Every structure is written in C-alpha cells, then in structure tokens.
Amino acid sequence: MRDAPAPDDAAQPDEVARAQAARHVRRKKIDVDDDLLSRRDQLKLRSDYLRNQLSFKAGRVQPVFRAADRVADGAQWVKAHPGLVAVAVAGLLGAVIARPRAFMRLGSRAFAAWQMVQRTQPLVRAFMRRG
Questions:
Q1: Could you give the CA distance from residue 123 to residue 130 in angstroms, rounded to a whole number?
Q2: Contacts of 11 (CB under 8 A, 6+ apart)
C-alpha cells in the first residue's frame, strides 16, 4: 500500500503555481498557434500573388517556349527518319548541281507561295470561326 502524501500547507502553493504555469503554457501555446495560423495565411496569400504574377509573365515568353518545342519535335523527327532526310538532301543537292537555274526558279516560286499562304491564313481562320 502506498503512503498518501501528507496534506501540508507548503505543497498547496506549489500545486497552485504548477496550475498557473500550465494555464500560462496553454495560453502561450494558443498564442503560438494563432501566430502560426496567421503566418500560414500570409504565406498562402503571397503564394497566390506570386503564382498570378508568374502566369502573367509566362504569357509573354510562351511563344518562345512553343517555338523551342517545335524545334525539339523537328529534331526528334529527323532522328527518327534519318533515311528519309538523307534521300531528301541528296535529291536537293542533285537538283542544284544538275539544273541550278531551274532550282532557283522553283525556290522563288515556293517562297512566293509560302508568303501568300502566310498572308491569307488570318483571313481563312476568321472565316472558319464565323462558319
């Protein structure tokens, strides 16, 4: 059997002090929790702000990224079809050597056709949107 602590008056102030200290710790913990919650809210707001700024600024460089992606896709296609690329280069080289004037005429016509397509493309797209 255990001996029960003897009730003495000196122990009571110590218990009261412990209870007060526990209340103080709880109050301090609540203050710390509130501080952490407010800090978390501030960080969330800042994160949202930075995310919006990044998406706005990324809109300016997006065409550059698209062009880089197209170049990378083209390089992958060339790596996947080396025989076809070799035949095309050999054909062009043969045409340049055999008939240089005809090749230049063909090149200038192809360039003119490309320019025409580039100029009419916005009109075609507008027409297709309406229809």
A1: 11
A2: 5
The answer for residues whose C-beta is within 8 angstroms of residue 78's C-beta and 6 or more apart is 85
Q: What is the pLDDT of residues 40-74, one digit of tens each?
A: 999 999 999 999 888 888 788 888 888 999 999 99
- Does the CA dihedral 21-22-26-27 come out positive or negative? negative
Contacts of 95 (CB under 8 A, 6+ apart): 102, 103, 106
Of residues 116, 86, 94, the one with CA closest to residue 102: 94
pTM: 0.42
Give the separation between CA 74 and CA 71, rounded to whole angstroms.
5
CA distance 15 to 11: 6
